[in-house]
Amino acid sequence: MIAGWERALVLAPHTDDGEFGCGGTMARLVEQGADVRYVAFSIATKSLPEGFPPDTLAREVREATTELGIPEASLTVHDFDVRSFPVHRQEILELLIELWEEWKPDVVFQPSLHDVHQDHQVIAAEGLRAFKRTTILGYEIPWNNFDFTYQAYISLERSHVERKVAALAKYASQQHRRYADPEYVWNVARIHGVNVNREYAECFQVYRIVA
User: Fold this and answer.
1) What does pTM read for this prediction?
2) Are 108 and 127 in contact (CB under 8 A)?
3) How far is it, in rounded angstroms, from Cα 49 to Cα 87?
4) Is 15 helix (H, G, I), strand (E, B) or coil?
């Protein structure tokens, strides 16, 4: 078990953020027997390409997290409008505090405070407030991070990256985005792995370690 983490919580501002940021780590944790919960805060209906029904991303995130080994009962999907999170900051904080009081995760994976997307910034800031009594790691979203400190690396096997890529492939509605290219996902994992003399890895900013 990574660092003794038995209960891991992943906060995704929008569906697929969690998979990009820590999909390989989720696969490794599930493989090791951890209870992994995934909470998405928006299904981004206003950002869907033409021709996709409004509930597309709600379905795709279920398929993606299932691919990672996360049961549907451990998935929560909210429907805040994309780019509106600053207006709903208090409501989001209350949802996060409820999660802490109900479950008390051993580790929380969330966006970096240096992520420039306004929705990601809200989840990052309120996540720190709600989960300040446990370990908090900020995951990397390279195209949104103008600054990112590479402080923690979680090594991955090839099978973990394969599951990450397979999970992201479930997002048919997002395949037009350049960063959805599987080769890009593999290359990022390779680069982080090489940096710490491993085959593959994901990297994180450390906000709090509680052991």
Assistant:
1) 0.97
2) yes
3) 25
4) coil
